Amino acid sequence: xxxxxxxxxxxxADLDAFYASVEQRDDARxxxxxxxxxxGVVLAASYEAKRRGVKTAMSGRQARMLxxxxxxxxxxxxxxxxxxxxxxxxxxxxxPQVQGVSIDEAFxxxxxxxxxxxxxxxxxxxxxxxxxxQVGLPISVGVARTPFxxxxxxxxxxxxxxxxVPPDGEDAFLHPLPLQKLWGVGEVTATRLQAYGxxxxxxxxxxxxxxxVGILGPAAGRHLFAVVHGxxxxxxxxxxxxxxxxxxxxxxxxxxxxxxxxxALLGLVDRVCRRMRAAHRTARTVVLRLRFDDFGRATRSHSxxxxxxxxxxxxAAARGLLDAAAPLIxxxxxxxxxVALTNLESDDMxxxxxDLDGPDTTGLDAAVDALSARFGSGTVRRxxxxxxxxxxxxxxxxx
Length: 399
Known about the structure:
The chain is α+β, with helices and mostly antiparallel strands. The chain folds into 3 domains: about 1-170, Alpha-Beta Plaits (2-Layer Sandwich); about 175-230, DNA polymerase, domain 1; about 245-399, DNA polymerase, Y-family, little finger domain (Dna Ligase, domain 1), CATH 3.30.1490.100. The chain contains 15 helices and 13 strands. The strands form 3 sheets. The protein has a 5-stranded mixed β-sheet. A 5-stranded antiparallel β-sheet has the order 11-10-12-9-13, with helices on one face. The chain has a 3-stranded mixed β-sheet with strand order 3-2-4. A hairpin with a 5-residue loop joins strand 10 (about 280-290) and strand 11 (about 295-310).
C-alpha cells in the first residue's frame, strides 16, 4: 500500500459488558450465568442475560420477568475503576495516540506505527490478548479508517470479537446495517426515517442530502449524509483535556422525598469534587441533570464568578439548582439525578477567596480526599446518605 492510499489504522476498543464482566472475573460462581449489576435499575448485564432480553437502564423488575434466574449483584465502582486503569495502561503502551471515550472504551490511532510494528489488525489482536491475559476481561475491537467506522465495527464484533473494515469495503460493511446500528442515530431519528420507508444505511445513502435535510433538519440531515458516505472525521482527538467531570444516580420511579433526592445529589457532588481535585482542576460551572418519569430530561446550570474546587461551593450551587427545579420535579416525577462540573481549569493559579460567611472548608476537603485515597472512596460519607439505600451511583467520564 502506498503512503497516499487510505489506511484502516483507527482502533475502537470496547470492553464487553464491563461491570458484569468484572464481577464474573472476580467470582467464579457467576461465570456462564446471567448476571445483572444493580438492583432498582440495571447498570450492566452479562451477555448471558442480554441474550434473554435484559438491557442496560431496564428496571430490575423487568429484568427478573425476562430472566427469572438472573443473579443480581451490587456495583463495586472501585473495582471497575481499577480494571479500567489497567486496561488504559495497555492502550497507552500500544500507542500514545489514545482518546478515552468512557471508563470502558477508547479510540487508538496506530497509523504512526506502520514502519515499526505489525499491521493494525494484528496490533488489535495483540491488544485483545493482552487485556485478556493481564486484566482477565473480554474486549471487542473494530479497525477502520475513521473513528466512526471503527466504533460501528467494534459493535458488530461483539461479544469478544475483532472486525476489520478495509477502506475499499466500507460501503459493503455499512450499507446493509440497520439505522439503529449507526453510532449517533437514536431511536427518535430512526423512527422518523422509518416512517419514510428507510430501514438501512444503504437506503439513506441512496438519497440526496437535500431530502435528509428536509426530514431531519440542516445539521442532522447533513451529518447523517456524511455518515452513510464515510465522510466523518479521520483523526483521533488526543490533545483535548477533559471538558467536564460528572456522575449520575438512577433512583427509580417515585415518589421520592425531597430530602432523599437532595441527599443523592450531595453524594454525587462529593464524588465529582474528589475526582476534580485529584485531576488538579477547578470548575466555573455546576450543571444539574434530571430525568423524569415520562423519560424527558432537563438541565440547569450555575456559573461562579471565580473557579472553585471547594465542595461546599459546589454543594450550595447544586442545592440551589435543585430547589429551583422542585416544581418541575413535583409535576413530572424524577427517576435520575446527576451533576457535572464544566468549564474546567488548572488549579495551578487558584486565587483563594475570603469567606466572610462561614469557615474555610479547604482543609476538610483535603482531609476527606486523603482518607478516600488511602482507605477507599466509601470510607467517609455524608450522614444524609447512610439511610438512603436507594438507587445506584454511576461514574461518568466525559469529554
